[in-house]
Amino acid sequence: MNDTTLQNFQTQQNQSLASGDAVRGQYSAATPDKGQPVTRNESVEENLSVRVRDLSLWYGEHQALDDISIDVFANTVTALIGPSGCGKSTFLRCLNRMNDLISSVRIKGLVEMDGRDVNARGMDEVALRRRVGMVFQKPNPFPKSIYENVAYAPRMHDMVSRKADQDELVERALRDAGLWNEVKDKLHEPGTSLSGGQQQRLCIARAIAVRPDVILMDEPTSALDPISTATIEDLMDKLKQDFTIVTVTHNMQQAARVADYTAFFHLGEMIEYNATKQMFANPHTKKAEDYITGRYG
To answer: Using an 8 Å Cβ cutoff, are 128 and 98 in contact?
Structure first.
């Protein structure tokens, strides 16, 4: 990696954690107790949000993930990078069992939250997806009003019943998503009437309205203009104070700007995982260095 490239990337890393943080949070490999991820398990160290060990996935006979192990830390942004088709989005969907919707999928390995295996036979998938929200690449607001886009899920989960409580929840979620001032006078207009960037922030408000622990973002800014992209990136930095964020991105500068940790995927394997500052300044593998510096991808 040449000096000019290093300087370009290092200027983007003001939010990165200090070198060496990636080794914190070591845990026993023992199989945890099974159960539903509805309440926190106080016996599990608080700074670990998701623990993955030896995770492999197949679509029929095609293996898409090969022996992935990673610790995702609470209240951080973790970026998944790598060329198209390397398994980033497939891995992301393993964290809330979205891959279960594909009949040909077969999974082996451990994904746990609070010491509980999310793939356990008795797992409540609805409860899991309440705790692990998701924002997709293309904004997908419900064909409902702005207000109902945010209020619908909390109401279905019996989080609120009184109208005053719903109003308070909707305002809080829209404020947290940085959208309240732009929509407070048109809450009953369709969510689809908003601009693309506003729609994506509405989807983020919808995700955080049920107060999840983890928010998954699958290339959330790839369809947005630069101004909307910058708004979402600023929002991610604020949201990590209350949530753990795992995001897929093809934009190396974005990963450097927003991520505390970065995992590099290649052909279904996780090649390298480290604090973003360390990985971008001094990658340990030639594959990661070549990808980060734009030699392929």
So the answer is: no
Burial 190-206 (b: 16+ CB within 10 A, else e): ebeebeebbbbbbbbbb
pLDDT digits (tens, 9 = 90+) for 40-92: 344 544 488 899 999 999 999 999 999 999 999 999 999 999 999 999 999 99
Q: For residues 139 and 200, is the Cβ–Cβ distance under 8 A?
A: yes
Look up the pTM and report it.
Answer: 0.83
Neighbours of 181 (CB within 10 A): 9
User: Which residues make Cβ contacts (< 8 Å) with residue 101, sequence separation at least 6?
Assistant: none
State how far the Cα of 263 lies from the Cα of 52, in Å rounded to an integer.
13
**CA-CA distance, 272 to 139, in Å (whole number)?**
30
CA separation for the pair 138, 222 (Å, rounded): 8
